[in-house]
Amino acid sequence: MAARRVLRFIIAISRFGLAALFLFTAGAKLWILKKFAGNVAELLSSASINYQRWQWPTTIAVITAEIIAAILLIVPRTVRLGAVLAVLMLIGFSAFALYYVYGLHGEALECGCFGGIIASQLGVKTALRNLGLLVPVLIVFFGYRAGASRPS
């Protein structure tokens, strides 16, 4: 019985912690929207993607995806879907960070992942941080059951 409570607590902390993280990062990006869009343009340009065309759609898509993931993680019926979106984003961001550093041999670039609040260079540390965040996402995905977080 106590182990079940501890597990529910860990799942709840992971779930709401991830939702808070995604809302925080989306808000921080909105706070420095033009600068973040400039970072996105630089990344797109380094990958030989037409940054003039895709800078704003990509910027808006990243922020929107973070907000949607947070909402899905908060709403009880969509928690597991939120975890799936979180996994896709974290793996995608990690893959691009590693591609930028090793595939494109890109120079250190402030990614704007946390707006201007927390400095974060795009690269291996960013990829490892994002991959580390897969742990709570997997805890939520495999541990959460609708109604299980309610007191018995």
Descriptive report:
It is a single chain. The chain has one domain. It contains six helices and one strand; from the N terminus they run ααααβαα. The protein has helices at residues 2-31, 33-46, 51-74, 79-103, 124-132, 134-143, and one strand at residues 113-116. The longest helix is centred in the first third of the chain and has 30 residues, at 2-31. The model has no long low-confidence stretch (mean pLDDT 88).
- From the alpha carbons, calculate the radius of gyration and give it in angstroms: 17 Å
Main sheet attributes: strand count, strand direction, barrel closure: none
Count of helical regions: 6
> How large a portion of the residues is in β-strands, by DSSP E?
under 5%
* Whole-number total of structural domains: 1
Mean pLDDT: 88
Helix-strand sequence: HHHHEHH
Poorly predicted tracts of residues: none
Distance between the termini: 11 Å
Structural class: mainly alpha
- Global geometry: elongated
Number of strands: 1
Helix content: over 70%
Provide the fold topology.
Blueprint: H1 2-31, H2 33-46, H3 51-74, H4 79-103, E1 113-116, H5 124-132, H6 134-143
Spell out the key features of this protein:
152 residues, mainly alpha, 6 helices, elongated
Brief summary:
The chain is an all-alpha fold and 152 residues long.
